[in-house]
Structures are given as structure tokens and as C-alpha cells.
From TrEMBL:
Residues 1082-1254 form the ELP1 three-helical bundle domain. Belongs to the ELP1/IKA1 family. This is Elongator complex protein 1. Component of the elongator complex which is required for multiple tRNA modifications, including mcm5U (5-methoxycarbonylmethyl uridine), mcm5s2U (5-methoxycarbonylmethyl-2-thiouridine), and ncm5U (5-carbamoylmethyl uridine). The elongator complex catalyzes formation of carboxymethyluridine in the wobble base at position 34 in tRNAs. PANTHER family: ELONGATOR COMPLEX PROTEIN 1.
Length: 1324
């Protein structure tokens, strides 16, 4: 679907002083063209048109002129090689010498020559019918006859079986089985009768076209690089001398004259000589045409024909250059260049595949540069049919892609022009469906689709053949009149149709290095387009683009700079972007376009090297094609993806494209077939047309375009269109609700009325899910912050239930009978399906219309499993409904009918109980069994015990009743088995089981309730005293010394044991109070003082051991961190030894490989999320992970954790030590109190002074600019270390355990120090 667009036509000449040029050669590096005729060779600087060298080719000895056979530039020798007809092989180094150097001579003369593609071998045919192969030093390697008399290595061989007459020939019929003998006649009189040589692109084979002496006809012989004969072509009558082997190696092209038709066609041969297709060369003139030369370009995409016009056998001055391409096995004539003065010779550029150098007979050297482009409308408005045109000679193949897709080489319509077409332009809106063709004859052909004369219409199959497009008709042929421009009308390029009457084109300026912008006006009354105004550009104009909204024209020069032309203005101005900078592409682009990105008009361009630019920004370096949508820029890439870039972003915010999606739900990227290219994009729709490498077309609807279109439709409340689009393209139906939940729920009635069909409503309800698709699968197309705020208040509400309830309410208002299936779907789709209501609806229809009820039940069975529905029906206690459902199931009537009959015979409540128990609805079963009286009470108790329905059972009976007490006792027994003794005691109290309650409270250590129950049982004093001793012992075993003391004093009256209990619990003040209360001062010496000394020793030893541990761990922590710093420095210097034994000391967090510390942090402060292994196993793994073993990976963090625990333990002793100090001083242990206070104060000071050195991760300064991990680079690590940053961790600090980040704080609110226990008077 692509056409060739002429980028530039540069003509130089007029002062070369050379005529009858027969050969041309072009250099790549210097841009010099060499021209040769029979007398001299001229070197021309092709851009400036200046002659930089000239040398005579006439030998001084003989003075005889000889025409050149071949001219090639040898890149490795920096010289041009000329081979003449008289046999001389000459070299000319134009920069070093002014004379030809004769390097060799063939005495018999030379008829043809050709260098191999690598310029290592030279093939020459001589006048006596010999074929010579030479090296690049002109040494003969092989000499053989040009017409071999042996069979070739690749010739066809008959193996003795199978004949053409016996083979099946399909639709060709039996006539194809007949062997046709080809009569070979003598070569055409226009044939030069000379051999022709052509190499394959890889240099492994070459072909020679030669006239056989026996028949006088031409044949093609293929030879290997070693000059070994391969094959002879099959007989083709009228084969001409033109020959060119396709560089890709697949075909050999030549030309055949059809004797009976008087026309010519290009024929193709395979390497083995078999014919492989052809195409007819159309007549472009009333005179005869003869193909003088045939040429493939470097990438094998274009076949060029050089044709001369003849009147009989007389050659005329007119010549043509035709460019042909092939796709889908159809050959298209893309460009036809007419030269009134004739063409001397032409040659493709050796480097640029789409550049050709043509030497005209008039003495001008013309360089043409083309580029591939697709001619199509932008389809930004609904009236624009997205026309795509394909040039095929004098025909324009047109297809409206908005309405239909016609596979090439076919088309929806063919517009026929009087001469070949070289360019196409489309009219401005609203006439964008009009076509303006630029003809090779230098005229315009105008086709309009809104002409009343247009009678031919194009219909779309499958749509009742409804007319969708009127075929454009030829309105007229317009001459091109150039006023004040010294250029031919057929030499223009870059056509833009900017208004109904205004046309812009480009012509060569005053020199080949600049262009002129021509401003034309269409004058229908004169049947002409008159170009009266022009603007001179500073350089060559490479491309143009027009924005129909802003009416601006962008011009791209050959250096990549962009200029702006505003229609009506008299000058050109640089294109300035929003930052005030001039726009210039880093590389010249062959395709440009104008669009709006981020409310700014920008220029987008694509180079031949796949670089895509937006203004000065390179967005992609692997772009193969692009298209413009109203909301997106679409690109295909070399990684076989289609990217959709939203135009809502600013140009500076557009990221450089990568091959992968940014996240799993990114709909802006999708895979496409390898080699796909964008043909056109429907700007206001969702259709994107792609062409595959083999030529076929495919239509896709990218998800990003679909979501964008759906958002607009839903905002406009176009429910029907939105629903059908979602259904057609399989978008999740939840988008209809999630796009705007509030608006959707407020307009449910309208939604139902608009959609209408129950099947559509059922599909919507069935697809409902709880998740918000605007935040999950389509999140890339929605603003997440807005969605989060909108839906934050509804997170606790079920979306499915809300929508189903809204639909059910709407169905009630609109009439349930119209939407029976949809109502059933809504009931079934709720989070907790309301199948009973659904069955009740079906049963209500049963009495009205049997068929409707039957259909409703069948549909419900489609939604719900029949066995589940049977259980629901049974739960309604309606046996008729149960039978109705059961008949639809696979159940055996011998099973369910006896079961139902048995249920019918039971008492009503017991029947309901039996059904509920069968359905495992134990709560409802309990409710019914509780109404069955005393006969079934034990069954009720068994049900409660089996299914743990105790709480519900207590509500069924009156408190204080025998049944209630029984249930409470059962509940209490159950709670005892769960070790819930206190709750069991409460239930025993409700059951008035006082002894059982006392025992339960005793197990729960609730001594107040124990003695309540004892008094309720009327215990005497001895019983209470005995009970008190037992209870006090149990309390002391649980270290509840105060409660034990209270029980002994109040109920056992054992004061000494009570005081001893307080002393054991270190409740010193309360013990002293009871000693003085009961006048037991003797206990001070016997119990208090020994206990004080024991407590003093315990605390002194504890402080000493904790201090020792703290100092050892602190010292080890310094060593570990020093080793890490050393290892980090070694990595920075490049001297690290990764096999060092101390490498394990470097944790994952400080490794410069970027590993994250988050993978090794403690999970002690968070919930363990892995569900494997027991709690004990997990604790063991956690302890092993945070091992204090020297050299372990996490030793540093284990040390910090251990130090934090020591600080917390010691700091928690303040209150205990404060009380202990007071008692020590009170009983005259002053010196020991002073030592204890000093020791405790000293360890607290040690803690305070070391906290800042231990907890370094919580300090922001230590992590600034030094985050390691996957986002860090070697440079960032090195720079941070050079600045003195401490090796940090990746990401947020909160990823670590708080104990590693937050240092423990010492409690300063507890005043524990005693002034009277200070060691010196200064402290007092």
C-alpha cells in the first residue's frame, strides 16, 4: 500500500562540455560522478555541478576513438576503471593524475564487462566469443567460450519417469499438458546484439545474455564465481539484451518482445534457467517503446526500466524511466519520468537504495531521491472515509478503510488517469475524500466524490449491500502553468492541497543545493493551476506536512531543520517549540506530519534508519512506521510491537520506548506480526490497518484506542454504542459501571431500556466482578488518584450486590415479566445467591403460564447446578416445587420420591427440622426442633453438642427453665474442654450448678468468684480456711503474691504466711505494712533482711553480666563494620578478593552488587506471612537467621538486636532498684546501696553514650545519596563512596525491622536515684 514519494530532484549541467555520454559511475564518499563517452572521461562534483577533472580516452598512438563498454569506480584503489570497445582496460586516479593508465589490453576487443559486487573479479567478453575472468590486478584467471558446449552443473536432468502429458494441470485443463515447441527467431533489429553481464548480489554467480550463433536468438547462461557453467535459460522467443540479476539473488530479469502483440514484457528466470513469471509493460505513447536497460536497486525493492521511444526503427529523442515494485505477486508502476531530450544513461546510487543518477542527452546530470510513503487521509472527522490510494501506472487504486478492507492488489475503486501518476494529494476538509493526482505528463487530474455526476457507488457486502461511498469521478485535467520559474511542469515534487483552490509544490531553486516553494491557485475556468508566487528556501526541502486545524505548513530541510509557512504570508520562519527553541531533527526524516501533543502543535518525523522524533526529542530508535490518531501517536517497532503514545502528555514527558510493557496491564503496547507496518489509522475511531510483509492487510483495534473511545461514549451517555463496542471487542463489561459508578447506578433504568435485549443484560450481569477494572486491567487509561478517591468510600460495599440490587429494583419498576431471565440472573449473581427468591419467581409463573415457567426454570438451571437448586427448592418446604426441579435433574425417582413421601408423613416442625438437617442448615434445624417439645429434647441436645450451637440454643429457652439449665450445663462442659474455665463458670452459674462453677473459677484463678460460690454453698469457717490455703498456693505458683496474701489474711487468717508471700514477691512496702499491722517485728530479722541481701546480690550480678555482654557485643560490632568498610573500599579500588574468607562478613545490604537489605531484615515485628511449617520451626529458622555466630551474614544486625534487648532489660529495672535502694538505706545498708546505685548509674551512662554509634541506619545523613540496589549504578556507588557516604540500603528505611532503625530510649520519667545514697557530699 506504499507509494514512492519524490523527495528531491537535483539537476546540474549545461557546462560540462561533453556529449553522447554512454557510461556513468558514482563515488560514495566524495559525491563525484564520472561520465564517459568515446573520447573522454569527465569528473563532476554532482552537488555543485562543477567539473573537477577531465581526461582523454583516445590513445595517442592511433588517435582512434573507441566507445566505452563499462565505467566503474574502484573504491579500494580510489580510481575509476574504463574499459573500451577496442580492448583497452584503463585506470584514472582523478585526484593524482591527469592521464589514463592502460593496465591491460584485449587484442580481440571487448564486447561487455562487469565487476563483481566486491570488486575482486572482472568478467569480460571478447570480440571472438571468449569469456575472460580477471582479478582486480587484471590477471586472467580463466578463459572459456561464451557459449559453452557442455551441460551445466545446474541444468535440468530427465530422470526417466513422469511426462508433462500425464501430469495434472488443474484449471488450465488438458491443453496445458501439450508440449509446445517454442520457435526461436532472430533477435529484434533494435537489439544491440552484444553480450550483457550481470552479477548476483553476493558475488557467487553471474549471468551472461548472449546471442547464439546457431539460432540467432538470445539465451541467458549462468556461471559460478569460479567460472563454471551452471545452466542455460529455457527458450524464450524475442528475448532482448537487457539483463539484471536481482541483488537478493532470487530472480534474473530481462525483457521479451511479444512478436504477435507488438508489446514488451519483463520476464524473470531462476538460477537454473527456468522461467519464473513476467509482467506487461504498458504503452505510454502512441509510438513504439524499447527497453534499453533494466536495473535493480541495491535492496531489490525497485526495478527500473530505461525505455526509448521509436518510430518504426528510427529512435526518437523521448525517453522514459519507470520504477516498478511488486507486492502480493502484482507489479505496480510507481513512478514514470519523461525526458523530452532523451536519456543517455542512468544508474542507481551504490549506497542510497532509493537514489538514481540520470544523464540526460541535453547534458544535464539529474539526481532523484525517493522515499516510501503511504498516501492516505487523516480520517480525523466522521465524514473522512480514511481513503488509501495506491499508484499503479495510470491507475489509482482507492479503498475507504473506514468502511471496508479490500485485500491488495484489489481495491474498492480504480481511478483511471490519461497518463501515469507520480503523486497523490487529498482535499482539505470537508472535501478530504477528493483526490488530486499529479501526472507524469506535468498535469493534474482532479477526482471528486460529491459530484452529482457520480453514479457509480460502492457497496459493502454483508450489510444488505447498502451504499457506503460514491466513487470519485474525474472532474477535469488541469494544466500546470509556472510563472517566473525556470522548471518544467513535470519536474515538481511534494504536493499539498491546503484549501479548495490553493496547492503547494516544490521545485529546484536557483542552485541544486536549495529549493523553491511554489504557491499555486486552481482556476477551473482555465482548466489550469497557476503557480504565480514562490518562496526561496535556504536549503533543499525534503518533506512537507499540513495541519488542517491550524492551517500551518511545516517544511523540513535536508539538514533536519523545520520551517513554518502560514498560507498567505510572504516568507518562511523557523518552527519554534513551547520552550522557545527552534525545532530541528537530529537526522533528516523522510516522513513528517503535524499533530498536537500536550496542547502543543508538534512536528513528528521518521528517518530511514527507524528513528522517530517529536520536535527535537527522539522517542524511538526502532520505529518502522507511525500513524496519527486524535488521541494517540501509534508506532510499529522492529521488536514487532505496536505502541500507542497518548497525545495528552507533554512532548518532554514522553519516555523513550522500550520493547517491553511497563506493567502487566499496560494496554499501550501490543504484539503484532513480524514486519507489520501501519497503513492508516481512523483518527476518531479505533481501527488501525496494518500491512504484512507479504502484502495482505489486517485490521486491529488496539486496546488503548478502544478504552479511549469507550470513555468518550460513556461520557456522552451513548450506552448502546458503548455496550456494542465492548461486546464486539471483548472488553470487560465491568467498565460500564466502573467508569462512573455513581452515574451508572443513577441511570440503571435508562441503561435497561437502551440495551433492551435480555441476552445482553444477562451477559452484563454475568460478567460482574468485585474488582474495579479501572484500577486493575485498564489502570493505564485512568487517573489512579481520582479513582482511588472516588471508590475509597465504597470499599466495604460489594459492587456485585449493589449493581444486582439496583437492577432488581429497576426491573420491579419497569415490569418483572418483561425481564424474567435478567431478574433470575441478578438473583443468581449476588455474592450470596438468592436462589430461593429466584425459585419463588419461577413458582409464581407456574400458575400463570406453564411454558413461561418451564423456560424460566430451564434458564435458572443454566446458571445454577441442578443439584444445588434441588437443595434450595427443598429448603422452601414446597414439595411441588421440589418435584418440578427434580424432574430436570439426573436424580433417580426411586430415590427422591420415597424420601419426599417420608417427609410428608412427619409433623410439620419435625419435618422442617429433618429437611434443614438434611441440607445441613443446622441453625434453622435447631429453631424447628426446639418447638417439638420434650419428646425430641434429647435429640435437640445432641444437635447442639454436635454442631456447637450452644449460644443459639440458650436463646431458644426461657432463663431458669429446666431446658435452659440443661443447655447451660452442656455449654459449660464444652467450655471446660476448650480451657475457657472462667466462661464455663459463668455458664454453670446460669445453670445453678454451684459446685461445678466453683471448680471452674478455681481453675481460672478467679479467687473472688471462688469464694462467692463457696458462700453460695454455705461453706463453714474450716472449709473456707482449707479452701483458702489451696487457693493461695495456686496463686503463689502463678506468682500472684499479692492475691495470695489477701486470701491468707481474709479467709485463712494466717498472717505470717501472708507476709512471707509478699516478701517472696518483693513487695517490700506492703510486707512492712502487714508486719507493723499485725505486730510481727520478728519477721524483719528472720525474713526481710535476708531477702533484701539476696535481692541485692541478684541485681548486682545481673548488672555486671549485662554490662559485660554489652561491652563485648559493642566491640564486636565495631570490628564487623570496620571489615565492611574495608571490603567496600577494596571494591571501589578494584582490588576486592571475592573468595576471601571474610567475605561472609559483608551483608547483602552493603554489597555493592546492589542487593537489597530488605531481603534479609527481621520479620519479628510483623506478621509472618508464609504458611509453611509450624510456629516452632519458623522460630528456629528466624533465630538461626539472626545468629550471633562470628562471620555469619547477618551478624551486624543480630548484634544490634541483642544490644537493644540488653538496654531494654536494664532500663526496666529502675522501679525495682529504686524500692530496693530505699529499703537498703532504711535498714542501714548505706554503703551497699551506694555501690548498687553507682553501678546502675554507670551502666545507664554507658548505654546513653553508645546509642548513636550503634544505631546508624536511623540517621538520615548516613543514607543520603547512597542507596544501593537495582536502581543504583557503578558510577553512583563510586561517587557516593568518594564523598564519604556510609554504605546504605535500598529503598525506604521502613523496610527494615524497627529495632535496626529506631534506637531504644531510656525512660527518664522514673526518678530512681536516692539523694541519700550518693557517694560524695557533692552529690548530696
Amino acid at each position: 500500500m506504499r507509494n514512492l514519494q519524490l523527495l528531491n530532484r537535483a539537476a546540474v549541467g549545461g557546462g560540462f562540455n561533453i556529449s553522447d555520454v554512454e557510461c556513468i559511475a558514482v563515488t560514495v564518499d566524495t559525491g563525484i560522478a564520472f561520465l564517459a563517452n568515446s573520447t573522454e572521461v569527465v569528473a563532476i562534483e554532482s552537488k555543485a555541478g562543477e567539473v573537477v577533472g577531465r581526461v582523454s580516452s583516445v590513445p595517442e598512438e592511433s588517435g582512434t576513438e573507441s566507445e566505452p563498454v563499462g565505467l566503474d569506480y574502484l573504491f579500494d584503489q580510489h580510481a575509476v576503471c574504463l574499459v573500451t570497445r577496442d580492448g583497452r582496460i584503463c585506470l584514472w586516479e582523478h585526484e593524482m593524475s591527469s592521464e589514463l593508465e592502460v593496465c591491460g589490453e584485449v587484442a580481440q576487443g571487448v564486447t561487455a564487462m562487469s565487476w563483481s559486487p566486491d570488486y575482486e573479479l572482472l568478467i569480460i567478453t571478447t570480440g571472438d566469443g571468449k569469456l575472460l575472468m580477471m582479478t582486480n590486478e587484471f590477471d586472467v584467471i580463466t578463459e572459456t567460450t561464451i557459449v559453452p558446449n557442455v551441460e551445466g552443473e545446474d541444468s535440468n536432468v530427465a530422470v526417466g519417469w513422469g511426462k508433462k502429458e500425464t501430469q495434472f494441470h488443474g484449471s488450465a485443463g488438458k491443453q496445458a499438458a501439450k508440449v509446445e515447441l517454442v520457435e526461436i527467431r532472430a533477435a529484434n533489429e533494435k537489439d544491440d546484439r552484444l553480450p550483457q553481464i550481470s552479477w548476483r548480489g553476493d558475488g557467487q554467480f553471474f549471468a551472461v545474455s548472449v546471442i547464439e550463433p546457431d539460432t540467432g536468438g538470445r539465451f541467458i547462461y549462468t556461471w559460478s564465481r569460479e567460472c563454471v557453467f551452471q545452466a542455460r535459460s529455457e527458450a524464450v522467443d524475442g528475448l532482448q539484451h537487457s539483463l539484471c540479476w536481482k541483488p537478493s539473488g532470487s530472480l534474473i530479469a530481462s525483457v521479451q518482445t511479444l512478436q504477435h502483440a507488438g508489446s514488451q514484457e519483463v520476464v524473470f528466470f531462476e538460477k537454473n534457467g527456468l522461467r519464473h513469471g513476467q509482467f506487461l509493460i504498458p504503452a505510454v505513447s502512441q509510438n513504439d517503446m524499447f527497453v534499453k536497460k533494466i536495473m535493480w536497486n541495491q535492496d531489490s525493492t525497485i526495478l527500473a526500466l530505461h525505455l526509448d521511444e521509436y518510430n518504426g526503427t528510427s529512435k526518437l529523442d523521448v525517453s522514459y524511466i519507470q520504477l516498478w515494485t511488486v507486492n502480493n505477486y502484482h507489479w505496480y508502476l510507481k513512478q514514470s519520468l519523461r525526458f523530452e531530450s532523451g536519456v543517455a544513461t542512468a544508474r542507481w546510487d551504490p549506497e542510497h537504495a532509493l537514489r538514481m543518477h540520470v544523464m540526460a542527452q541535453a547534458g544535464h546530470l539529474v539526481t532523484y531521491t525517493w522515499a516510501w510513503d503511504t498516501d492516505h487521509t487523516l480520517a480525523a472527522a466522521a465524514s473522512d472515509l480514511a481513503l488509501v490510494t495506491v499508484i499503479d501506472g495510470a491507475n489509482i487504486l482507492v479503498t475507504p478503510m473506514r468502511e471496508m478492507l479490500v485485500p491488495p492488489p484489489m481495491a474498492a475503486a480504480t481511478l483511471v488517469c490519461p497518463s501515469p501518476v507520480n503523486g497523490v494529494a487529498f482535499g482539505p476538509c470537508p472535501g478530504s475524500n477528493d483526490v488530486l493526482a499529479y501526472l507524469s505528463s506535468g498535469k493534474f487530474a482532479l477526482f471528486t466524490s460529491n459530484d452529482e455526476k457520480s453514479s457509480e457507488t460502492i457497496s459493502k457486502p454483508g450489510d444488505d449491500f447498502k451504499c457506503i461511498w460514491k466513487k470519485p469521478v474525474l472532474k477535469g485535467i488541469f494544466d500546470i502553468k509556472l510563472v517566473g520559474v525556470g522548471t518544467s511542469a513535470s519536474d515538481l515534487c511534494h504536493m499539498l492541497w491546503i484549501s479548495a483552490e490553493k496547492i503547494i509544490m516544490v521545485a529546484q531553486g536557483n542552485s541544486p543545493s536549495n529549493s523553491r516553494l511554489l504557491l499555486g491557485c486552481m482556476k477551473p475556468e482555465e482548466n489550469a493551476v497557476v503557480f504565480e508566487e514562490s518562496l526561496e528556501a535556504s536549503s533543499v526541502i525534503m518533506s512537507m506536512a499540513f495541519n488542517q486545524e491550524t492551517r500551518n505548513v511545516a517544511l523540513e530541510l535536508d539538514d533536519g531543520t523545520i520551517w513554518k509557512y502560514v498560507p498567505g504570508s510572504k516568507n518562511l520562519s523557523p518552527w519554534i517549540n513551547s520552550q522557545g527553541k527552534a525545532v530541528s531533527f537530529p537526522s533528516p526524516c523522510t516522513q513528517i506530519s503535524l499533530t498536537n501533543v500536550g496542547s502543543e502543535e508538534v512536528v513528528v518525523g521518521l528517518t530511514e534508519r527507524f528513528r522517530f522524533f517529536i520536535n527535537n526529542i527522539e522517542v524511538a530508535s526502532n520505529c518502522t512506521s507511525f500513524g496519527i490518531h486524535n488521541d494517540f501517536l501509534l508506532l510499529t517497532t522492529l521488536s514487532h510491537t505496536l505502541r500507542c503514545l497518548p497525545t495528552s502528555l507533554k512532548p518532554t514527558d514522553l519516555p523513550k520506548l522500550s520493547a517491553e510493557k511497563t506493567h502487566p496491564f499496560d494496554e499501550s503496547c501490543r504484539r503484532v506480526e513480524r514486519g507489520s507496518r501501519i497503513v492508516t489509522v481512523v483518527g476518531d475511531g479505533t481501527k488501525v490497518v496494518l500491512q504484512m510483509p507479504r502484502g495482505n492487510l489486517e485490521t486491529i483495534h488496539p486496546r488503548a484506542l478502544l478504552i479511549s473511545s469507550l470513555k468518550k461514549l460513556m461520557d456522552r451517555n451513548s450506552i448502546q454504542d458503548a455496550f456494542m463496542t465492548i461486546r464486539k471487542h471483548r472488553i470487560n463489561m465491568n467498565l460500564l459501571h466502573d467508569h462512573n459508578p455513581k452515574h451508572f447506578l443513577e441511570n440503571v433504568d435508562n441503561f435497561i431500556k437502551t440495551i433492551g435485549k435480555q441476552s445482553y443484560l444477562n451477559v452484563f450481569l454475568t460478567d460482574l466482578i468485585e474488582e474495579d477494572v479501572t484500577q486493575t486491567m485498564y489502570s493505564a487509561s485512568y487517573d489512579q488518584e481520582t479513582n482511588t478517591k472516588t471508590n475509597a468510600s465504597n470499599l466495604h460495599v460489594s459492587k456485585v450486590d449493589t449493581v444486582c440490587d439496583a437492577f432488581l429494583a429497576a426491573f420491579q419498576r419497569l415490569g418483572v415479566n418483561q425481564y424474567i431471565q435478567s431478574v433470575l440472573t441478578a438473583y443468581a449473581r449476588k455474592t450470596n445467591p438468592e436462589l430461593e427468591k429466584a425459585l419463588q419467581l419461577v413458582w409464581s409463573l407456574h400458575g400463570q403460564e406453564e411454558s413461561q415457567a418451564e423456560a424460566a426454570l430451564n434458564y435458572l438451571l443454566f446458571l445454577v447446578d441442578v443439584n444445588s437448586l434441588y437443595d434450595v427448592a427443598l429448603g422452601t418446604y414446597n414439595f411441588d416445587l421440589v418435584m418440578m426441579v427434580a424432574q430436570k435433574s439426573q436424580k433417580d425417582p426411586k430415590e427422591y420420591i420415597p424420601f419426599l413421601n417420608e417427609l410428608r408423613r412427619l409433623e410439620e416442625n419435625y419435618r422442617y427440622y429433618s429437611i434443614d438437617k438434611h441440607l445441613k442448615k443446622y441453625s434453622k434445624a435447631l429453631e424447628h426442633i426446639s418447638r417439638c417439645g420434650d419428646d425430641h429434647f434429647q435429640e435437640c441436645v445432641a444437635l447442639v453438642s454436635e454442631h456447637k450451637l450452644h449460644c443459639q440454643a440458650l436463646l431458644m429457652y426461657k432463663p431458669g427453665s429446666p431446658h435452659f439449665k440443661k443447655m447451660a450445663t452442656v455449654y459449660g462442659d464444652y467450655l471446660l474442654t476448650k480451657n475457657r474455665h472462667e466462661e464455663a463458670g459463668i455458664e454453670f452459674v446460669k445453670a445453678e450448678e454451684w459446685l461445678m462453677a466453683l471448680e471452674a473459677f478455681r481453675r481460672a484463678n478467679d479467687w473472688q468468684q471462688v469464694f462467692c460460690m463457696a458462700h453460695r454453698l454455705d461453706y463453714g469457717k474450716p472449709q473456707l480456711s482449707e479452701l483458702a490455703v489451696k487457693v493461695a498456693g495456686e496463686l503463689k505458683s502463678r506468682q500472684k503474691y499479692e492475691d495470695a496474701s489477701a486470701v491468707l489474711i481474709e479467709y485463712a487468717e494466717d498472717h505470717e504466711e501472708a507476709i512471707v508471700a509478699l516478701i517472696e514477691g518483693s513487695h517490700w512496702k506492703k510486707a512492712l505494712r502487714q508486719i507493723y499491722r499485725f505486730k510481727r517485728l520478728d519477721l524483719i530479722d528472720t525474713h526481710v533482711l535476708p531477702a533484701l541481701e539476696e535481692s541485692l546480690d541478684h541485681h548486682s550480678e545481673l548488672l555486671a553480666s549485662q554490662r559485660d555482654l554489652f561491652e563485648r557485643y559493642s566491640a564486636r560490632l565495631k570490628v564487623v563494620r570496620a571489615l565492611k568498610e574495608k571490603a567496600a573500599a577494596q571494591v571501589l579500588e578494584g582490588t576486592a578478593d571475592y573468595n576471601d574468607a571474610e567475605a561472609d562478613l559483608i551483608s547483602d545490604a552493603t554489597s555493592v552488587t546492589g542487593a537489597s537489605l530488605a531481603s534479609t531484615h527481621s520479620s519479628r515485628s510483623t506478621v509472618f506471612t508464609k504458611g509453611t511449617g509450624s510456629a516452632r520451626t519458623r522460630r528456629k529458622a528466624e533465630n538461626k537467621k539472626w545468629s550471633l555466630k562470628e562471620g555469619s551474614a547477618n551478624e551486624e544486625f543480630a548484634l544490634v538486636d541483642a544490644l537493644a534487648k540488653i538496654i531494654k532489660v536494664v532500663d526496666g529495672l529502675k522501679e525495682d532498684i529504686s524500692v530496693l535502694l530505699k529499703l537498703l538505706v532504711q535498714f542501714n545498708f548505706d554503703q551497699r546501696a551506694i555501690k548498687l546505685q553507682a553501678a546502675y548509674n554507670e551502666i545507664l551512662q554507658i548505654f546513653q553514650s553508645n546509642i548513636a554509634e550503634i544505631w546508624v541506619y536511623g540517621q538520615k545523613s548516613s543514607l543520603a545519596g547512597m542507596n544501593l540496589g537495582p536502581n543504583s549504578t557503578a558510577n553512583s556507588v563510586a561517587q557516593a563512596l568518594q564523598k564519604g557516604h556510609v554504605l546504605g540500603i535500598q529503598g525506604e528505611e521502613g523496610q527494615l525491622d524497627p529495632v535496626l532503625l529506631v534506637a531504644p530510649t531510656l525512660d527518664r520519667d522514673v526518678r530512681w536515684k536516692l539523694h541519700i545514697a550518693t557517694a560524695t557530699d557533692q552529690g548530696r
